[in-house]
Design brief:
The protein is 62% helix and 5% strand. The protein is mainly alpha-helical. The protein has a two-stranded antiparallel sheet. Helix 4 runs antiparallel to helix 5.
């Protein structure tokens, strides 16, 4: 943080990437007001950078931790709009979209809006499923307990018995 503030105070050229890194530094130090200022400037300098809107929304969600004001909503909405333009962009932003959908699920749960809560949690769930697995789950009439078969396997992780050691498998 000192490096960024010194660079800014010296009047040196401060680029969008500097504001992004400074905002994240403030965020991880729980200095949310300063992080918000940095991400605000980032959004002004680079309005097509979707991740900047995500981080501003994330910062504001920490400032409104009880979801009372919905401060993060306009920035998360903008992020969703930019991150779901096409399937390649959605795939690239899956992790961040999952986080945003979780936020909205919790936000609408706090408002006791079960319909929207379930809609966002379903969106989050759908992001994390392999397309073939999704097809199998929706086309099957029998209850699907997921990919956990008698061998104890899953498409993302391999569980070995008896010690249930998790070994990541790249898809």
């Amino acid at each position: 943080i000192q490096t960024f503030t010194k660079k800014l105070a010296d009047g040196r050229d401060f680029k969008a990437l500097d504001y992004f890194n400074m905002g994240k530094s403030y965020f991880y130090e729980s200095m949310f007001s300063d992080a918000d200022k940095a991400f605000t400037k980032l959004n002004e300098l680079s309005p097509k950078f979707a991740t900047g809107f995500y981080w501003r929304g994330r910062t504001l969600s920490y400032m409104d931790s009880l979801y009372a004001q919905g401060l993060a909503n306009p920035f998360y909405d903008k992020f969703i709009e930019m991150a779901t333009v096409d399937s390649a962009t959605t795939l690239k932003n899956t992790s961040l979209l999952s986080d945003v959908y979780k936020y909205y699920g919790t936000y609408y749960y706090q408002l006791k809006d079960n319909e929207k809560t379930l809609a966002y949690l379903k969106k989050r769930y759908d992001l994390n499923i392999d397309p073939e697995e999704r097809k199998a789950r929706t086309s099957s009439r029998t209850p699907n307990l997921g990919s956990f078969g008698s061998a104890g396997t899953c498409p993302r992780f391999r569980w070995t018995k008896p010690n249930l050691t998790r070994i990541a498998v790249r898809e």
